[in-house]
Amino acid sequence: MDIIALLQQALDASNKLRDLAKKVGDADFKMLVADLHSALGDAKLESAELKLKLAAAQDQIALLQAQVKQKAAGKPTYTSEGVYSFDGETGRFCTSCWDVGERQVRLTSMSPEFDFAGKWKCPKCKAHYGA
Ligand SMILES: [Zn+2]
With contact defined as beta carbons under 8 Å apart, do 1 and 10 qualify? Predict the structure, then answer.
C-alpha cells in the first residue's frame, strides 16, 4: 500500500482517538492524542515531499544511464573526410554535435543539386560536411 494512504489511515484512527479523548476528559490523554495527530500530519507531508524527490532522482538516474551508455559506445575517430566515425557504427557523424553535447548524430547525404554546400548534412545542427 502507498505510504501516504497508510499515513492517512493512521490520521483517521487518531481522529477517532481524539473523539474518544474528549469523552474520557483526561487532559494529558487529549494532549498526547493531539501530538500524535500532528506528528502523523507532518509525516504525511514529508512523505509527499520525499515522493517528489524520489521521482526527480529517478529521472536523473535515467538521464545519467543514457549518458553512460553513450560513453560506453566509445570515442569517435576523426576521419580524412572531416567527420567522425564510431567503431561498430555505420555512417558519418557530426563533429560539432559530438564535441558540444556528446550526441551521436548521423549525417545525411545531400541531394546532388545541393551538394555544392557539402556532401553531407547534420539533421540536428544543419552543419555541412565534405564541401
Ligand atoms: Zn550536428
Answer: no
